[in-house]
Write a sequence for this structure.
């Protein structure tokens, strides 16, 4: 089978670190806005924000402003920056953010300076 059909794993990124060179990423943030007309939301990490396009209206209906949310999606270049097309949206409001950060620092970035997710 040709490699062109191979799906890249989702790379964990801070919203501020996403570039047009990225393909598939997972990000964590708080939903600060949603727009029914464009079926989109804005996810904010506290330091930066990104527009997330929701491919299905039923996803839009499940999104709640103010909730901690993780998005796994495809990076799309847009107007000199990037947007995400959501492949999966997960409610992370019940996830312990400190523990989540600690785990990622040990598994994803071992040996590096501790990072805040």
């Amino acid at each position: 089978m040709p490699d062109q059909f191979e799906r890249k794993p989702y790379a964990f990124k801070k919203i501020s670190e996403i570039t047009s060179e990225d393909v598939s990423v997972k990000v964590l943030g708080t939903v600060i806005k949603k727009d029914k007309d464009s079926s989109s939301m804005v996810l904010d990490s506290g330091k930066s924000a990104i527009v997330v396009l929701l491919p299905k209206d039923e996803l839009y209906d499940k999104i709640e402003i103010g909730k901690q949310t993780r998005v796994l999606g495809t990076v799309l270049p847009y107007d000199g920056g990037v947007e995400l097309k959501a492949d999966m949206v997960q409610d992370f409001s019940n996830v312990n953010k400190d523990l989540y950060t600690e785990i990622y620092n040990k598994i994803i970035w071992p040996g590096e300076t501790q990072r805040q997710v």
